[in-house]
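Supplementary Methods S3. Complex input for the adenosine-5'-diphosphate-bound model.
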Amino acid sequence: MKREFRELLRERGRTELPRVLLAAAECAPLSKTGGLADVVGTLPKALKKLGIDARVITPYHRCIKDKYASQVEHMFYFYTNLGWRHVYVGLERLELDGVVIYLVDNEDYFGDKIYRGGMPEGEQYSFFCRAVMDVIPNLGFEPDVIHCNDWHTAMLPMLGHTQYPGQIQDRAKYLLTIHNIAFQGKFGFDFVQDMLGVDAKYYTPEFMELNGCADFLKAGCVFSDRINTVSPSYASEIKMPYYAEGLEGILNARHDVLTGIINGIDKVTFNPKADPTLPARFDRGHLKGKAACKKSLQEQMGLEQRPDVPLFAMVTRMTEQKGFDLVACVLDDIMSREDMQFMLLGTGDERFEKFMAAAERRYPGRLCAYIGYSETLSHLVYAGSDFFLMPSRFEPCGLSQMIAMRYGSIPIVRETGGLRDTVTPYNRFTGEGNGFSFANFDAWEMRDTMRLALECYRNDEIMHGLIDRAMQADFGFDRSAEDYARHYIWML
Ligand code: ADP
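Predicted complex, serialized as structure tokens:
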């Protein structure tokens, strides 16, 4: 055990590291629609290396049944009450890479989509929260900390503390991680009362009411022992109305237990030294392979074969969150004035997809808009590009900028959330920095920052320094896991 942890434990009169149960709607590689699944899949493995027994509880989704049924071991089943409904709860157990994963089975709720949307989704995850609460005493594993993620599991602390007094569920400490505050699980109070039997006294602004709705995420913020988001800057930002989506009141009130822990990336999947999807491999000191990747990207995407031309890239959901309206505003200005290429890999809002498809026709051989989702191509785009553009309006953490840096593509980002915490802007006086950034959500500021990057591109020494520092940055998950471990211990 790390000395720091031993000392922290001693301050709390404990000798053993906490046992942790992570509850989440998805867990990679079993089920995945976004970054949440990666965190839930990777964190327990990294915690195990630190000596922490962390297990996962997640729904037994159809997609998991289809792939893993033969490896799953049935533990037990019972019926529980979901309001007036008497519903089946099966508990299955799976061990993956040494991590125990408990799977909550109910074909009616998890027989098709991970997220059904609207009230059906509210019912799916009300059921999941009830099932988690009811299985805990029978797991043979008493968690000290229950780690909830986003609104789908944010009702657990409230249920534990108000409906299971004095029991394991009440004694446990709760950490709530907010991966994206834009999704809060808002329903009519009647619905929540009918599902989970929440007492009417909690339907007030001090507890779970927000703008006339019962808000699951708000309940989580009120009843959990600690709250964290996925970057320190986003943790500060969500105390402001612009970012908080109505939760600024409760988050300010609980500022003393609100922190940010930056996510990491999977250093094995994203490794330019050994990436099997690339035509050539490279690392910090040996960038020949990167030039070969650029050549291959240009060739495959119909861009002019020029090693010397700066290539800007985006791999993204094409939405306003990702700052796509800024790109749409200044793309023509910059493409018409500068000698550069632009590569986009993404899908999203139809208006942005159409805009980019039209831009491709205006700049043949210089701009490629690949509208689609391709994991393999994304690796080549990261490896073959010189600059990676990410002008987000808000960004809880952001993984793409970290992946880009690992592949020596210099990020150009807006200073928000995790982008601000991972990219240090280039300083022409000290020569420090591993990317470029701009402060305001403003298209012309973005354009000027791209121009500064173009200027630097013409100077080999600056460019090599930037690439070297970007590739050197350590965004592995071990650092995040240590931070989570500290949080768990603080809560004991
Ligand atoms: P998000 O808010 O979309 O989760 P992140 O930067 O945290 O943004 O993570 C996005 C992840 O999805 C990155 O790994 C990125 O490479 C990947 N990605 C996004 N769009 C595409 C696409 N069209 N094709 C392949 N990968 C994509």
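Residues 288-472 form a domain with the Rossmann fold fold (CATH 3.40.50.2000). The first strand starts at residue 20 and ends at 23.
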